[in-house]
Amino acid sequence: MEGEMRQKVSELPDTAGVIPRAVRHIFDILEARKADYSMKVTFLELYNEDITDLLALEDQSRFPEDRQKRHITLMEDGKGGAVIRGLEEIVVYTPRDIYSLLERGSARRRTADTALNKQSSRSHAVFSINIHVKETTVGNEELMKCGRMNLVDLAGSENIARSGVREGRAREAGEMNKSLLTLGRVITALVEHSVHVPYRDSKLTRLLRESLGGKAKTCIIATVSPSVHSLEETLVTLDYASRAKSIRNKPEPNQKTCKSVMLKDIYQEMERMKQDVKAAREKNGIYIPHERFVLDEAEKKSMREKMEHLELSLEKQNKEVEKFQGLYLAEQERRLDFENQNKDLKVNLESWKGKFLDFQEAHCRTNMLLREKDFIISNLLCSENSILERAKDMRNNLENASGDITVLLNKLERQAKTEAANEGLLSSFRDELDHSLRILHDRVVGSVCEHLKLLESTNEQTKSYFLAKTESANQLERRIEKAKNMYVSGVQCMKELADTLRQQSIIDAEQMRLSISTHATTVDNFLATMISEAEQILDDVLKSTSELKELLAFSAELQQTGLKRSLTSAQAMSKTSIDFFKNIRIHVARLIKLMEQNQIERSSKLLEFENEFKEICVKDEQAAMNKIAAILSGLTAKKTTMVSAYVEQLNERYSEEQKHLNLELCNLQQSSDNGKDELVAYVGVVESQFQEDMSSHAKLNDQMEGILHQCLKKGGHSASYWSHTQSSLHDLCKRSIMEADDFIEERRNKNENIFQEKLMSSARNDAEFNAITSDVLTSSKNSLLLDHEIRKMIESVSTTSSDHLELLNEKHSEGTESIRNISSNCLEKDYMANSPIRHRPRELLTNANSLEAIEDLRTSVPDLVAKFRSENKLDEIDKGKQFSDQRTRTSRSPLMPVNQYVE
Fold this sequence. Notes:
Layout: H1 18-33, E1 36-47, E2 50-53, E3 71-76, E4 82-85, E5 90-92, H2 95-107, E6 111-112, E7 120-121, E8 124-136, E9 142-153, H3 160-163, H4 168-191, H5 203-207, H6 209-213, H7 231-245, E10 257-258, H8 259-284, H9 290-532, H10 537-623, H11 629-715, H12 722-828, H13 851-856, H14 861-872
Antiparallel strand pairs: 1-2, 1-5, 1-8, 2-3, 3-4, 6-7, 8-9, 9-10
């Protein structure tokens, strides 16, 4: 059962037994679930029907022959199970702890050497593992789940004759065979479902009662030998296993216990154990070894700590229980409220069901009445169609008769009244015609006068508009002239500044050249005096060198000051030019804004003039009479078209002038921007040249200082080098003078070229600016000339319109006079009276219907209802029965009218 359990690595060896493998499997499952658990183990031995605890420590108070084993009592628990009193439970945490306990207990088992087995087990062993797993519910309530696993190692049945045992060993074999025989009887009774199962005949069957016929899962591993000599034992073992395989248990999981209940059981068990210990001490006393005492004290301390922890947990759990009880009561109250609401809803549902049934009955009755009404209406429609046919015939006859009567009456009335009414009508017509002609003539004359006044006001507005435009054009010319003067003065200032800068650079170059020549002459004189005075060479060289350094520093400072002045003047000139160009741009923007405002004002005035002219024409057209409406509308349309075309032409010319002027102003802005960019570039070039000059002078000074330092260094070695030094310094001075002259000449040429390019650019800018200003002035003058031409055209149009109006007035006077003459000639002629016409109306048709025939056309509604009910086999409608309509109903809405006339 145990096999080999020790190995260096954590894995089990291949020869490990069932118990180590089961233990490893249990720990793997618990660790995989990450469960909070505790595990305890017990290990007992059943030898000669005596139970011995294999894990208990030896009692040192007894003699060696008496303290080998500790016997334990087997008792009933009152529930059909067995309880072992005094069995020691050891808490384990790892598989290694269990392996150690197995080794310790297995070493204490009773074994003996027989003829069949060198190490034969003389007892049965039961290794039990008790596991407690803590689980947490949804309400944070802790539950304890308990489980037990019994691993039983049964001793084999033994033939005393073959094993060769004697005396005490024979008794051991007899007890083993007796317990195994009892186990076989129990298995047979369970297989045959006997009423009595002999569990109590052996302690082994009492221990295994729950595993054999209880609610646990049981597995039997039969260990047999392939040897022929063990055939009898093999057959007996297989018979046990075969019969045990037929047992059918009903395994059930253990009930989950609350933590508080479990603690209560633990307290009770502790109290019982305390009482047992106290009774044992009072009876016999007890001797505890020091090691055992230390272990007991440690266990007591750990137990106290656990008890305190459990008490705290219990208190916490009690609080949570109270909390959940409150929540439960609240939920109960809510559930009661919901039940009451549910009852009310059910009552309402029953009432609504009754109402729904009533509505169904009413709906059936209503459907029946509707079908009855449809039947009546269809029959009434048939009757109505026949009545309509008869009515049409009668209507035709009546129309013919009424037509004849009407013609006859009209003839008679005209014949009677014509003669009496003609004279009055003629006189009133003559008076009305004269009055209408006078009114028409007065209105035409008034309209012509209003049109003439409107033309005069239009001419005055046009004159004021042209005067305002002339004034704005003159103001524009003055502003352009002012901008031109500012530009010329700015360019002149720039030229003067450039001349000053060039003269200053020439003066600075000459000063630098003279300074370099002076330096060279001083060096030559210095060398000559040094040759003549060889004794004081070192002191004089030092003094001359210091003086030369000061002169070079002074020269460099002068040159830097001159270049800085040049740069400052160039920057001032560029700033002045930039400000000038900014002023030009500001004035140009103001000019553009002013022109846009003038354009908007002109457009608004023209639109106002056009709208006023159209409104006046419409009013005059509406005021005219119907006879001359065509003439006035044509004249008004012609005048409106002429004015609209002229206004559109003016707008187009103004827009073209505006575009041309905007283009010229954009060119002016572009030219100013180009000049500004060129000036900025020139300033950048001057600054770069200034930096180059400064760097070249710094390099030259550094070279001179290096050469003087080398001269001083060489002068200290020997006086023989003075001649060579003199020639070298003389050549160096000449070369320096030549380089300085070349550098100054080159810079002067570059400055001259830049100055000439700037002059040429300034000349080009002057030419472009003059051209732009001349173009702007020319455009302004052309615009004024065009305005004068437009003014002349407007005056000619107004003159033509006034002539047309006068001609229209004359023609209208002639037309009204001709109308008077024609009407008087027409009314003075004789007229013929209508002669009476003899007309006899036709005879009316005599096929009118009689009263009996008309009564026959009437449809009786009660008869139709009775017919409908007899056809549908219905005697009563109000019985409330559901009516299943088997026919196809008329496809219409319930309130749709059916009795529509069909023509």
